[in-house]
Amino acid sequence: MTLNMFLGLLGIIITIIVGAMGIIYAYRIRSIPKTTFLEHDFFSLFEEIIKYMDGINITFENIQVGPSLLMLKASFINNGTVDIDSSMVHEPLKIKLPENCKWKRIKITKTSPNVNVNFKMSDVITEFDWDLLKKSEYFSFDALIEIIDNPKESIEIDYKYIEKISEKINISHRITNLEKTNKENLYSIMKSKRLKGLVFDFILLLVLGLVLLTLLFVVPGQSLKDTHYIIKDSKNNNMEIKLIYLKNDNILIKSINGEYKEVLTVDEFVKRYNIPLKVIKNTMTTYIFAIFASLGILMSIAVLVNYLFIKRKENYIKMLLDIK
Known about the structure:
Layout: H1 3-28, E1 35-44, H2 45-50, E2 59-60, E3 63-64, E4 69-78, E5 84-85, E6 89-96, E7 101-111, E8 117-121, E9 125-130, E10 132-133, E11 138-147, H3 159-168, E12 170-175, E13 181-185, H4 186-190, H5 193-218, E14 222-224, E15 228-232, E16 238-245, E17 250-255, E18 261-265, H6 266-273, E19 279-281, H7 283-320
Parallel strand pairs: 1-13
Antiparallel strand pairs: 1-4, 2-3, 4-11, 5-10, 6-9, 6-12, 7-11, 8-9, 14-19, 15-16, 16-17, 17-18
Helix pairs in contact: 1-7, 5-7
């Protein structure tokens, strides 16, 4: 394959992929509501504070705090492209705990400027409502949650147990054009291994693409239809040879026993041994190398774009919530 042919094929593939990515991007940024429930922290007050600080006793409702009292710090973010006002909310945002848990206290700790949030708390469900939540606005709250099926503190409340509770927290609402609220964990976002994985994928795909691209110009685009012949050696004895097509119409002649090796052009070989050679083009092989080389390079670019998108998301959340 010539350089012009490769560049032409690469141009077609780039056009198709960039066009598809443009359609996907336009679909993502269209005017739709999008919200995120962001869990900052979720821990046992006893396990995280009291247990490791001698002489500290904390009481809640005149009862000493034990492992079953949990602290949840979270935010609700409008990270879509439209404002959400009360006319769009047909049923308020509801956060429902698992059956073995109970809301004890909730406090709104922070909001975007001029955002007014109200909540109504029952044992299992807490409802939040607002007049207007513009795009990029949010509110944050702290909540005390009690595990009610652990009266004798028989269950070990470690991070895995709390993680299971977090997974079972259900978020529902009826908001126009909003299918669901995404659940995110701040620690997972900030410490995500996805970024390291994407860097590795980018390097791997880029190297693969460059290797295939190199092979595309190193591996001959042609070959011989027949490669084994019998010729006369210098002593007029029969010698079985194997022909290997090189680049620029050259061929490598090797005897089967390995004692003889020579490079000639196709015309020189035909003239010397009076054996016609048929050279065929490896069109399919060449195109396969070209396609996979192009895909490797373009996929590495796509991975890089995804990396930058996730990194931008992290920085956006940090800026939005003033996280250092």
